[in-house]
């Protein structure tokens, strides 16, 4: 799913298994109950997308916190 535009898509309950989401755009995307726990290289702004009850792995945290300039080591 490299360089895919998912803006304004309703992806509720979707399961993304081992998806490389490099350069994928999430803007006003609904990800309620979505499972991205095995996906990687995504950047998702939690303030700009509905991620209620979505599943992410610990390895996905940098992609959720990118806008805050937090370094996770």
What's the helix and strand layout?
Layout: H1 61-65
- Fraction in helix: under 10%
Cα gyration radius (Å): 11 Å
The major beta sheet can be summarized as: none
The total count of helices amounts to: 1
Cα shape? globular
Structural class of the secondary structure composition? little secondary structure
Distance between the termini: 26 Å
Give structural notes:
The protein is low in regular secondary structure and 73 residues long. The protein has one domain (1-68). Helices cover 7% and strands 0% of the residues. It has one helix and no strands. The protein starts with 60 loop residues before the first helix and ends in an 8-residue tail after the last helix.
């Amino acid at each position: 799913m490299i360089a895919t535009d998912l803006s304004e898509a309703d992806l509720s309950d979707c399961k993304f298994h081992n998806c490389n989401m490099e350069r994928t755009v999430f803007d006003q995307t609904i990800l309620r109950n979505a499972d991205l726990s095995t996906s990687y290289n995504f950047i998702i702004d939690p303030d700009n997308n509905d991620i209620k009850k979505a599943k992410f792995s610990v390895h996905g945290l940098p992609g959720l916190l990118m806008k805050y300039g937090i370094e996770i080591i």
